[in-house]
UniProtKB/TrEMBL annotation:
Localization terms from the record: Golgi apparatus membrane
Protein name: Xylan biosynthesis protein IRX15/IRX15L
One Pfam family hit: IRX15_IRX15L_GXM
Its membrane topology: Single-pass membrane protein
GO (cellular component) term, any one: Golgi membrane
Keyword Transmembrane belongs to the record: yes
Species of the source: Heracleum sosnowskyi
Length: 294
């Protein structure tokens, strides 16, 4: 069809076709969520979920109509903008299936992007919190989707520290079970010790790790995030598992730290560059704690 066109025009055409295809797939996912959500939302009790409201709806999140409207807002946003998902179609559906089975739930997302409104819409009437290190990026995203629940955070690690952190953490007793904790744990460099209270005050049912940046030496890297997700999952007191999704596992640091702290025995499924872990609380039936992460 493009035979005879100059090479530059051919490349532009192909790129445009890919964007259109990705956009169609992205919108299809949102539509599926709205349809299935509208069919199942009446099964949720308003009284049982009044404490788990999604910030995306912005108003009366206890009503079925406002939840539906928030998903429609997401569809309208993506249908009228050039924003597309940062994960692949198959990766998105892996997380969506878990969120759909748990919603409304507590959903923690490391990283903020143009697909953040989509993630919030996937957790109707639940708490969805985003943590992002780049304050300029926070302002840019919120200028387009102002109702997202976001905290700007600082990380004191660098990707170049990764090897040293992995080698040295076992010599720091505050990094090891059963004493390991997060809030105020300034002795363990891998612990996220100074985040907003909301981070510590909730038990997170689903944790998505798609940030902070981890592709150049001076970037924060995801070492402390992966470690802290493991600590939170192990310390869970509510019934059930903690589902942790780690993106970019094709990279060395993500893979190494996942194997060390999230544990391959808890790996449920791998799709493209996304790994799904289902991690139980670190308690034996007699109440004693495990002494290692894996």
């Amino acid at each position: 069809m493009m035979k005879g066109l100059p090479l530059k025009i051919k490349n532009i055409s192909r790129k445009g076709s890919n964007v259109v295809l990705e956009k169609h797939l992205f919108l299809t996912i949102i539509v599926v969520v709205i349809i299935t959500g509208s069919l199942t939302i009446t099964s949720f009790s308003t009284s049982a979920t009044s404490a788990l409201c999604t910030y995306v709806t912005g108003a009366d999140t206890g009503s079925h109509s406002s939840t539906f409207n928030s998903q429609v807002d997401a569809l309208l946003h993506y249908a009228t903008s050039r924003d597309i998902a940062q994960q692949s179609h198959d990766e998105i559906f892996l997380s969506l299936n878990v969120l759909r089975s748990l919603a409304p739930c507590n959903f923690l997302v490391f990283g903020l992007g143009y697909d953040s409104l989509m993630w919030a819409a996937f957790n109707p009437r639940g708490i969805t919190l985003f943590l992002e290190e780049d304050i300029k990026w926070v302002h840019k995203v919120l200028s387009r989707t102002p109702l997202l629940r976001v905290h700007a955070v600082d990380y004191d690690t660098r990707l170049s520290d990764a090897d040293g952190l992995l080698e040295s953490y076992k010599s720091v007793k505050e990094c090891l079970p059963p004493r390991v904790s997060l809030r105020g744990n300034v002795h363990c460099r891998l612990a996220l010790s100074e985040l907003p209270d909301e981070f510590y005050n909730k038990e997170w049912d689903v944790i998505m790790i798609d940030g902070p940046k981890g592709y150049f030496a001076a970037a924060p890297g995801r070492m402390s995030v992966i470690f802290s997700a493991a600590v939170m999952a192990r310390g869970r007191t509510r019934p059930g598992l903690t589902h942790v999704f780690l993106h970019d596992v094709n990279r060395k640091v993500e893979k190494q730290f996942a194997e060390e702290f999230l544990c391959m025995k808890y790996l449920v499924k791998a799709v493209d560059r996304l790994w799904h872990f289902a991690i139980p609380p670190a308690k034996y039936e007699d109440g004693t704690s495990k002494l290692t992460f894996c």
